[in-house]
Specification:
By secondary structure, the chain is of the alpha+beta class. About 50% of the residues lie in helices and about 20% in strands. The chain has two domains: about 90 residues, Arc Repressor Mutant, subunit A (Orthogonal Bundle), CATH 1.10.10.10; about 90 residues, Alpha-Beta Plaits (2-Layer Sandwich).
Amino acid sequence: MVSSNSNKTAEILRLIQTKKVATLGDLSSNKHLVGLFSASTKATPRRRIIDTAGLLAKQGYVSVGLLDNEKVFKITEKGKDRLKAHQVSQEGLSITERWDGRWYLITFDIPEGKKVVRNQLILTLKRHGFINYTKGLWLIPYNPTKLVASLRKQLGLKSELRLIVAQSIDGDAKYRKHWDL
């Protein structure tokens, strides 16, 4: 489950990406953002939007500059990765839950610079029922080929994400019990 704060952050990143460069005025006057940030707190929606944009800059998701004495924001590669990861978590990727007698393992090698993408991938795997078989190896008894293809495309992972199909695995009985197979 993705938090509403994550949705708000993604909406700010999406607006900045759409505009290429967004001013504080663009962000704080956007009706959609104001609606998202208008929950009952002491801070005004405008203040919360400005604070969130500042936090995104501090975390490296957006860069900040000045244009005609106005603060402007531009999405960074790290921000684009975070936005992609959020989009993956929101999409209804599914796996057919019919066991064909094979085991499917996913492994990946994602560099530290793409930590947000790696973490989102792990969360997506968990949400779809994968379990950690060993360090760096995720297991499911259902064919995830479509999910893997979609994740590769959406997260920009070509050779970093690998699917392994196995006829048998160690500890088979334990995993069959886990999935009621």
